[in-house]
Amino acid sequence: MSAILIFMAGLAAVAIWWLTQQRLTAKPWLESGSTDAYPLTEAPAIEPAKLGVGVLLAVIGAMFMLLVSAYFMRMVYADWQAPPMPDVLWVNTAMLALASIALQCAVAAAHGGQLSNLRLALVAGTLASLAFLGGQLIAWRDLAAGGYFAIDNPAISFFYMMTALHGLHVLGGLVALGRTDFRAWRSVPAGRLTLSVELCALYWHGLFVVWLVLFAVLMGWAADFIDICRQLLS
Fold it and tell me: What DSSP line would sit under 128-178, residue for residue?
């Protein structure tokens, strides 16, 4: 329940920030002069595709927060045995961070019309994402080799379920990213790829934030943080 409340608070903060950027408090009927003198009095146009990706990320985030909440509620039972987390998860986190950074660099290259840099950044983001997925499979293999199976331990079941679900979202994003890669290597002008690259970067940033939350939960840091907060509030 605490995880859901924290997520809802985060959504509210983002919504408030977004509304403040729309100049909803402006009073254009009180302003005089030519319209050119007040170029910021109108709300900036928002790409419907970006809004759609934002809504999708909100839904994905809510789904994972429900899983995290169920994780916390289930771990209080006696049969819960948290396994040692594979070291490869650190590498996987670095790979997903690299993919997010690479796609942000691709956005900058697209805005600058730098097609060669755009191609390089897109390839780097794609390869880093594939490395992340490969690393997740290695983590599964390491746990299975250590004798940790989903049918024996609910903690392992949650690990497989949450990492697999997150991996499926990364895999789905790779379909759109691969299409953007293909268009870039067909020498489509960088300016025409700007929106596609921005959507991919936005989606990857969201998945990276979700993974950081999952990583903290699986490593046990989130539970420790909640216990500290409860002690401070009690």
Answer: HHHHHHHHHHHHHHHHHHTT--TTT-HHHHHHHHHHHHHHHHHHHHHHHHH
